[in-house]
Every structure is written in C-alpha cells, then in structure tokens.
Amino acid sequence: MIVTEFELRANWHKTKDQVIKLPHGSVITPSARDFIRSKGIDVQIEGNVRQKPFSEKLNALKKDQGVQEVKLEHMTHLRSGVLVTKTHPVIAYRGQLDLFQCELVEVQGFFAQEGEEKLILKLEEILAFARQLMASEVKEEPFQWATLIGLKPEELREQSHNPLKYFGVEHAPLSYTHGKVVSKLHHLRAKSREVELYANRAFINEVGVCSRTDLIQALNRLSSALYILACEVQGKVQMGKRVPIGTSNRHLHLSKDDLFVLFGENYALTIQKELSQPGQFAAQEMVTMVGPKGCLERVRVLGPLRKNTQVEISVTDCHKLGIKPVIRDSGQPDGTSSLQIVGPSGNVELESGVMVARRHIHLHTDEADEWSLKDGDRVRVQVQSERPMVFEDVLIRVSEHYRKEMHLDLDEANAAFIDAKSQGLLMEV
C-alpha cells in the first residue's frame, strides 16, 4: 500500500484521528511523513510486536521492518527531502515560470533582428528578475527588490494604470498596426499574467490566506513592467504616425480630349506651381462650372492630364451648384453627379465624375510598410489644431510616387480650423 499526503490529508480531515493503522509493507512518501509529523499522528504498522513512540518511529522509519521510502515516477522533489506529485500547484507554477523565461529569450532574439538593443537590455533585467523569483521560492527565502526597468513598485503600478498620461496612448485593444514589437511585448505580458495566476493557485489556500505575498506582488509588477514597455513603444510609434495636412480647394482634372475642347486643339497646360505630390501641379488655366442652380467661377485645373475628367468639390459647392453631393474615392465616378464646364474655347457637358472626394492620406510604400498599412486601408485620424477633432474612415492611398500628406476638402479643413501647422495623428485601422 502506498500512502500519499493527498490521501492522508483527505481522510484525516474527516476523522481527526491521532492514530492510524497501516498494513505491513506499506510505503509512506516523504510528503506524507511530513504531514504525519505536523499533525502529531501516531502510525501503527499491523504485525509489529512493539509500537514505538511517534518521535522514535519517525527517526527510525526507514529501518522499520514494514516501511520503506521510494521516489515514484509520478513524483518529484518540491525541495530537498520533500517529494510531491508532479501535479502539485507549486511544481505547476515553476513550470510556467520556466516557460515564461523561454519565451522571453525568444523575444530577445527577435528584437536582436529588429535592432531593438535597448529593449533587449530591458528584457535582460526582467529575465534576471524571473530567475530571482524562482530561486527565492525554491530556497524559501523572502523575495526582495527595489526597482524593475528603473521604476519602483508604486511607480510601475501608477504608470501602467495611466498610459495616456505617461505615454500618450489609451487602454485599447491590440492591433496589428501597432507593430510586431508591441505585439511581442503584449504576448510576454499575457504570459506573465498566466504565471501570476499559477502562483495564486500555489500560494493561496482555500480560505484566501496567501503564504507568499512577496511573490504575488512581484509577479503583478512584472506584468505592469511589460505593459509599460509596450505602451512606451506604441507611444513612440504613434508619435511617428503623424502626417501633414493639406487643404484641397475645388479643382478638376482634365482628359486630353476635354482639354482641347475647353482651351483649343493641341493645347498644353501651363504650370503655375508644383504641388506636394511629386509630378502633380496647379496649372494657370481655370474654368467655370455651371449647375442647375448656380455656378462656380475660376476653378483651377490640376495636372498632369488624366484618362477621364474628374471634378472635386465640397458639399457646400454642391449646394451652390444645385447638385447632389456624392462622396467617392478618386477614380470611381459611378453614380456621381453631372454639370457643365465652360472654358475659353468651348464647353464640356460632363455626365458623371463630379464628386466630393473622400478624405485620404497619401503614403509612400516605405512609410506604409513601416506603419503596417496597405493601399485601400481605412484609418481614424485625430487632427491636432485649435479645434481638434477625429476623422473617421480615412482612406489610405499608397504609391512609390507619393509623399506623406493627408488631404481634406475646404469644408472639412474649416470645420477643424486647419492651418499650416496642423497635423493628423493616425489612431487605428
């Protein structure tokens, strides 16, 4: 018969017997023997002629005719001289702490590829912290520490609870747009919280008494430290996700055929000034637009020429002309309004292609890759001005020929009080 601590504890709590009888040849595990000692229980082996006093019996237990000590395959040492089952809560906690350290080292390897040397050093400090946690528990010594990643326990708690104040980011769901580094740090944080959960199972009993408050508090602050690192990186990323804002007044793009009708055969546009986007320019040429209820004079032509003529105006302009405002991405004329374009040499009846251009951001391919964005994505943008506001559903347009800039029409720019210093801050997809 094998007598384990678990069986003894379960039966003893029912009867509180101070004497237990075991059959001859019983095997008592070391942890069960410790339990017997702690409760002052007298063990009697059936078939023995003389029953020794408890203290004497414990000292001679290995030599007793019917008792022997063995280490079974399903058991392991909790510490020197103490055997427990491998499902023991403290053993499970140690396994999770080991796994956390493995994953931390893997993240350090990833950061080395990314050139994140400062973060590698921060994680090295956290790795040493985790190793000390393990040693403290195994040796049954108090865990003492002053700072982690340069912060005291109360500072870790304060900053992790107020990321907007310290790092300029809000508590928000993780997004791929935050970048791989932030994702890796959040993964480590989630793992550290799992370690903390296992520690609570190991060191808090059924009535809520904690035997290792030092370890529980340290693990909680470890989670805070990793969250702080993630917020710091995310804050820097968001600080970098700023775009200048350009106000787009009413204008039109002409096809070659419509240019010739309006300005004459073989006419060429005259560049007045280069625009922010490479290869695009404002021309000296201007036209008049005529709608059912009114007209807009001196509307500037932008170059170069396009395959199809497209007019981009504001909602206010649409009301003045008496046409229905239709919001479209550039180059998507289906379902848009019509009007007449009047030039010095002729008129063009434009059947479609008059739109309120959807607010958008031009990004170079390198910038889009850096920010984990692609052509066609939609983002939220916080406009920083004297009248700050958040613009939803902002289209991302990506090309190797683009320069970083957000475009708003005149109505949107006026609503946000945009000036030359205003910037947009990308918030999320």
From TrEMBL:
Organism from which the protein derives:
Candidatus Desulfosporosinus infrequens
Its cofactor is:
Zn(2+)
Q: Which UniProt keywords apply?
A: Acyltransferase, ATP-binding, Metal-binding, Nucleotide-binding, Transferase, Zinc
Q: What is its EC number?
A: 2.3.1.222
Q: What is this protein called?
A: Phosphate propanoyltransferase
GO MF annotation list: acyltransferase activity, transferring groups other than amino-acyl groups; ATP binding; metal ion binding
Identify the residues that the record assigns to the Cobalamin adenosyltransferase-like domain, covering every copy: 74-231
Q: Name one Pfam family in it.
A: PTAC
The UniProt similarity line reads: Belongs to the PduL family.
Listed InterPro entries: CblAdoTrfase-like, CblAdoTrfase-like_sf, PTAC
* Keyword Zinc among UniProt keywords: yes
Reaction it catalyzes: propanoyl-CoA + phosphate = propanoyl phosphate + CoA
